[in-house]
Each structure stands twice: as structure tokens, then as C-alpha cells.
Amino acid sequence: MALKEGDKIPEILGTDQDGKEVKASDYAGSKLVLYFYPKDSTPGCTAEACSFRDNFSALRKAGYQILGVSVDNEKSHKKFIEKQQLPFPLIADTDKKLVEAFGVWGEKSFMGRKFMGTIRTTFLIDESGTIEKVIGPKEIKTKEHATQILNN
Predict the structure, then answer these.
(1) Closest Cα to residue 76, out of 30, 143, 16?
(2) pLDDT digits (tens, 9 = 90+) for 31-83
(3) Is 45 labeled as catalytic in the residue annotation?
(4) Could you tell me the domains of the chain?
């Protein structure tokens, strides 16, 4: 059963690019942008991450913390963060616990081929760890995603 608006997020979110455990309580008292993306260093995912990077101070001023999630490993995340100079952590959900809990792991198709993967989705979470809004893949404009959230 996928998490939806009004649900509390799980306490243990996973481990970041440095192998550090990330918990929901780390973000208590702040609003959180928890965004799920398919793969490090691909064009759409890079555009989305850079949108958050370029608007980081505006998002922080609006009270948001940023946390990205993909099924890539810590080493891949570290490289992606360094190359793109991302000022926020990325969770390495290699066991797919988080993508499955949030209901964003599913069948996708690309050039006629069907496969399982992360469905680009963003969850806006309030100061108490409750999901306020879910932004689905059809609504997300990767290059302007941070602005979409700020104008929400």
C-alpha cells in the first residue's frame, strides 16, 4: 500500500551517499522535499537535481530541506553530488524499501521495452513528517521543478 497525502513518512528513510542513516526525525520542524528520481547522471535527473541546487537558498528560505532518492548506490550518489555540486543528500535505496513504501517503483517503458524502475515523484512533507502533497511524473517539469514547488 503506497503512502499518500495525510500519511506519516517512515522514521528510517535509508542511508545517504556517505553511508549515514537518514531518519525522518532529522527533518522534524522543517518542511521536506523528498524527491524520487530514476537514475544519477541522466539528462532529466540531472536537470531536476540542478533545479534544486540552483534554487537551494530560495527553498531553504521557504523552510524546505531537500532529500533525493534513487536506487543507485552510495558511490554513484557521491560522484553525482560532486560533479553537480549538489548541496543536499541523496539516499541510496539499493534494497528498494523506500521506493516500494512510497509506491514509486513500477513498470515503465522506453523505446518499446518494458522494465521496472523508479517513477519520478515528489512528496512535500510538513514539519511533523506528514505528506502534504504528492507531485506525480506528469506534473513534474525537471528543469523548473524547484520553482514549481516554490510557487505551490
Answers:
(1) 16
(2) 999 999 999 999 999 999 999 999 999 999 999 999 999 999 999 999 999 99
(3) yes
(4) 12-150 (3.40.30.10)
